[in-house]
Amino acid sequence: MFDFVPYLSFLTSGIGVLFICYLLVRFPRIPQVYLLGWIIFSLVFLEFYIYALTSKHIYQMLFILRTPNIIRIFLPVVLYWYVRQMLIPSKKVKAKHYLHFVFPVIMTIGVMPDLFLSATEKTTILDNYYFQNKYFISTPMGWIPAGFVQPASILFGIVYGVITLFLIWQTKHKMGTSYVHINKQSINWLNLLSGAVTIYFLLQFYQYINLFLNNSFDPPSQLIKCAIGISLFTYFITTPNVQENMDGCILPKEKEIPSIFEIQPELLVAMALDNEAIAFDEKMKTDQAYLSPDFDLATMAKLVNMPSAKLSKQIKMYYGISFAEYINRLRIHHFLLQREFFDQYTLETYIYQSGFANRSTFYTAFKKYVGVNPSFYLKEMCHSS
Predict the structure, then answer these.
(1) Is the domain of 271 the same as that of 177?
(2) In which domain, by residue range, is 320 found?
(3) How would residue 383 be classed by pLDDT, with cut points 50, 70 and 90?
(4) Is 336 part of a structural domain of the chain?
């Protein structure tokens, strides 16, 4: 009845690999993405291992025998680090936080000898497993006694999953309603991911107990794990708000979210009657040279026939902001002016037309100068209009 389960595990693994590639191509410069990548890789690898083991294809891949125990023991710690970095990106990592890795490292060292067994020895282990399913849990693993590695690593995962969910709950209450409102989708994603990993370990614990008591593998629980993995990937891909916050949740600012016209740089009061400043302001906003992704300080200096250093100081004098902020705010303002036509083309089209080289640069600039991500801002505009 459940003969298709190994192949469903293989399919889930394949989807997971594509998801990891998507993350690395789409967000290569964001550190948190690599932590998320490891979490997904761990789930993918564990599913692939189940496929290889239940289909007996593991005989052609002896090198992966025992490696799931190492992957599994690091998964909950990396999950905790990822969620912690996402909730408050500005929070620095201290030396004591590395103590989370002590138990996984000890377990890895203990299992290490089995990774270097010969092909004949690994084949013998598999033969004994297929003869009696309990073999894996009734024999020592490396330097670690029998019946310790699997339950210890699974319980470790369950405990860390609960701790991670508590961390999310604690941060929500500590940061307040404004933080939760702005980061609603991101917090939902972190809860979903942490909950999914925790359930994954609970199902593994159930499978372990079933193996221990009944000497059999439990296919239905494997089906649930596959469904959880596919649901995770689907939620992420279909929720733009989550992708806009890949570098972490937004910390609310004391000042209110600016209107579209407040985003556009305006001359300081002291410069409002200065003819040179007025002429400069009109030229920049009329020519719209900033809509070119290659437009930089040097290009702008040539445009106004002025040395770069002097131009930078002049922008600071006229607007009270840096050149980078000046250009990015002009581009963001132009992007928002096109909002009525967003249903005609993809969002990327308007991002590029506004002068941004890529999505990542746009999201970073938007959150820095506006204070929220684009999806949240546009949604709030719809509610207020």
Answers:
(1) no
(2) 260-384
(3) low
(4) yes
